[in-house]
Amino acid sequence: MHQLATAGGGEKPLLALRDINMTFGGVRALKNVSFDVRPGEVHCLAGENGCGKSTLIKIITGVYRPADGASIEFDGETYSHMSPVTAQDRGIQVIWQDLALFPEMSVAENIAFQTVLGRWPKLVDYGRMRQIATDALARLGVTLDVDLPLKEYAIAQRQIVAIARALVGEARLVFMDEPTASLTQSETDHLLDIVRGLSASGVAVVFVSHRLAEVLEISSRITVLRDGALVGVYPAAGMTQSRITELMTGKTFDQQVRAKFRDGQPVVLDVKGLSRPGQFEDISLSVRRGETLGITGLLGAGRTELALTLFGMLKPASGTIALEGKPVRFSSNRDAIAAGVAYLSEDRLSLGLIQPQSIADNLVISSLDKILSGGLLSEDRKRSLVARWIADLGVKIGLQQDAISTLSGGNQQRVAIAKWLATDPKLLILDAPTVGVDVGARAGIFDIVARLAETGLAIILISDEVPEVYFNADRVLHMAQGRIVGSYDPRSASLAEIEGAVYA
Predict the structure, then answer these.
(1) Cα separation, 363 vs 404, whole angstroms
(2) What stretches of 400-492 adopt beta strand conformation (E)?
(3) Where does the record place the ABC transporter domain (predicted)?
């Protein structure tokens, strides 16, 4: 029985969808979904990856046309479908999870490029674009050099640019798809304040996030989808993270500390006094065979820079790195891969995987030597290698030759992990492996991590979400301002203790 909470108190919805159906290749992506948003409401759209959230948003914004019989009402006007132009004209804006930005263009051009669009060519007023961009960033309380190419900025700053671009127009309804995935806690808090400000000014916000604590903090109502169908619409008041998880997945998850004693195992990685000025300083740590070492801390703490140095993509100014007791100095990531180090990037969309390429090509790209036959690539060996890892990691796919972009975030991440496992590493570095991955898929990924550790693989698990490292690592290191400032054993330390230190 669905718990259906529609606009109450005589308040007419700003947006109301009724009987939305969508089919792709014979598969029903949405099944008779109804959905509404009130003026000025912060509404959460929740569900696992692949449940139909993005499809629903694309129907609302005119990217997809729903099956016959659908009704879309916006501010009193009814449509059988919307076009992208109509949606934008009515003030519907979307911040997509993949940001959809232009790395080679300046920050100003990314934020204000719509000012030069139209049916006829026009001269570009760069001064006006810079002013629009500066004003939009100021609204977010952020200062960036708007003349710099976007590629000069890290993921967190790019996310802010995407948000600023969405706020440039006269928005009445803003969809935010995982807007905080790459933000620090302080940046996230600031964004939530921005969302509250938008809501207070009458702008409706539909918030999509796998960080359920944010969902409960910011939303007034929560719409849950599962397998393309509406589970229900629920008031956020009184809701819990575990209850949302149960509604999204149809399952219950019992989180328990997985930490085990690994002191008797041989050391795989030994780092002493590693420094890189401006990024991290005097880092000393070790990882043993079968051990999962968690590293947490806010973005900007130097975690990713440390990982990139261990992977040979950055060079340390001082300090030593040893693998299985042998000193190593990597000139490139090729050297690191050859030595048995694998690195899963936090930026799956642009660095971890090649989205237009096939699932098979993405999986074998780091281990081409394993599918050679007589100096040529063997399609039979390729299919066999891909089939092995797809089955071993439980990746849900159609065909091996399908584009990786056709998979959900959780399944893409499993392919990204498989890509590195195919290289037979000694050390696997997982940098924010659950960014953009829903709660059900996260549990599956951490089950894989635990299984890999039991096979003897040394793992470094990096995350800014303290519960991830607390429940899934054998030891936890806290990094802040480029230094290791704390070390914890999850078997004796509490989650609240570590969170208090990290978020202080």
Answers:
(1) 10
(2) 427-431, 458-462, 475-480, 483-488
(3) 15-252, 259-504
Q: Does the pLDDT of residue 67 top 70, yes or no?
A: yes
Structure tokens at 313: 């993509």
> Mean pLDDT across the stretch 302-308?
93
Residue 121's CB: how many other CB atoms inside 10 A? 7
**What per-residue string of b and e applies to 267-298 under the rule 16 or more CB within 10 Å gives b?**
ebbbbeebbbeebbbebebebbbbbbbbbbbb
pTM over 0.85: no
**Per-residue pLDDT reduced to its tens digit, 326-384:** 999 999 999 999 999 999 987 766 667 887 889 999 898 888 878 877 778 888 888 89
Which domains, from first to last, does the chain contain?
Answer: 267-340+425-502 (3.40.50.300)
Query: Rounded to an integer, what distance in angstroms lies between the CA atom of residue 434 and that of residue 432?
Result: 6
Contacts 24+ apart (CB under 8 A), 420-424: 420/342, 420/343, 420/344, 420/366, 421/342, 421/389, 421/393, 421/452, 422/363, 422/364, 422/366, 422/367, 422/370, 422/385, 422/389, 423/337, 423/340, 423/342, 423/366, 423/367, 424/340
Could you give the angle at the alpha carbon of 128 between the alpha carbons of 126 and 134, nearest 5°? 100
8: which DSSP letter? Answer: -
At residue 380, what is the residue type?
D
DSSP 150: G
Cα dihedral: 99, 104, 108, 109 (round 10): -90
In this structure, which amino acid lies at residue 451? Answer: R
Q: The tokens of 381 are what?
A: 């060996």
